[in-house]
Design goal:
Helix content: 40-55%
Largest sheet: 7 strands, parallel
Number of strands: 15
CATH architecture of the largest domain: 3-Layer(aba) Sandwich
Strand order of the largest sheet: 3-2-1-4-5-7-12
Number of domains: 2
Oligomer: single chain
Number of helices: 10
Structural class: alpha/beta
CATH topology of the largest domain: Rossmann fold
Strand content: 15-25%
Length: 307
């Protein structure tokens, strides 16, 4: 039986990755400092509460001899990085570097969870080679820095690596909050019967991807030999306007308060976001199955269960 180390395993994606690994017969070690994750997301497995920048913590984690590392821990996300840029750089830069060094020493496969934010404000369907040199937030800088470290370890040391770029993942396990994503925040507000705040015009688009599809793509990126040294988009391949998203959530929750338009955040210049997933389909066999309507209904039901 193989052993997987999942950093950020108390997050929505990390918790679901860990749970799926256990279903598939893996032993799992979760490493998370609970700065943005939740204990309730961690399945029954070995849990280490610690910082990925702490060598003592990493020595303990790698003492279990993992075969594969899923590096999902991060200082999340854009607004948080604007408010706390040094913490962002330390976690997403130094933390990734230290994990790579331990993984190399222990001959582990290494899957790095990156973000669609590395594309900046490029229009159209985003292919893996469309990385931008003009990025908007420290989070985008540091996630791209992490990718560069991963590529360096692959090219210079022959280390087995793959990179997955997440596009607006959503689903059970993701809680609302100041630094959280739009869907959990919209659902939380809608269930309180309040108007959903839209920053901008509402015509902005995002590629919303259900968490279980993201999990499947993440695991495929570790399983497929052809994934070694490559980068993959994990999105739905469909874009949705924010005002359409808001209308769907209001309808599902029975919220009659509608929406309100508020000032756009100063750093947010992204008007469109759409993943090209042809490469992921061809090499990984990635095939997102859960449409937005079904995924939102499932997520709303999960929220209602928290009450």
């Amino acid at each position: 039986m193989s052993l997987a180390l999942v950093t950020g395993g108390a997050g929505a994606i990390g918790g679901n990755v860990s749970r799926e690994l256990i279903k598939r017969g893996f032993r799992v070690v979760v490493l998370d400092n609970l700065s943005s994750g939740f204990k309730g997301n961690i399945p029954k497995c070995r849990f280490i509460n610690g910082d990925i920048c702490d060598n003592k913590v990493l020595k303990k984690a790698f003492g279990y001899s993992p075969d594969v590392v899923f590096h999902l821990a991060a200082n999340f996300a854009n607004q948080n990085s604007v408010d706390h840029p040094e913490k962002d750089l330390r976690t997403n830069g130094l933390g990734t570097l230290r994990l790579l060094r331990f993984s190399r020493k222990n001959n582990c496969r290494f899957v790095y969870a990156s973000s669609s934010c590395v594309y900046g404000n490029r229009p159209g369907s985003l292919r893996e080679e469309h990385v931008s040199a003009s990025l908007d937030t420290p989070y985008a800088f540091s996630k791209l820095l992490g990718e560069q470290y991963v590529n360096f370890f692959h090219a210079n040391f022959g280390m087995w690596t793959s990179i997955v770029r997440y596009f607006n993942s959503y689903g059970p396990g993701e809680y609302p909050g100041r630094y959280r994503n739009v869907i959990p925040n919209f659902i939380s507000i809608a269930l309180k019967g309040k108007a959903l705040p839209i920053t901008g015009t509402g015509d902005e688009t995002r590629d919303f991807t259900y968490v279980q599809d993201v999990v499947e793509g993440t695991l495929l990126s570790a399983e497929k030999e052809s994934a070694n040294g490559k980068t993959f988009n994990l999105g739905s391949g469909k874009e949705t306007k924010i005002k359409v998203l808001a209308a769907k959530i209001n309808e599902i929750t029975g919220n009659n308060a509608g929406v309100e338009f508020v000032k756009r955040r100063e750093w947010d210049h992204i008007s469109r976001r759409l993943a090209y997933i042809g490469k992921s389909k061809k090499i990984l066999g990635y095939n997102p199955k859960v449409g937005l309507d079904k995924g939102l209904k499932s997520t709303v039901e999960w929220f209602k269960g928290l009450r």
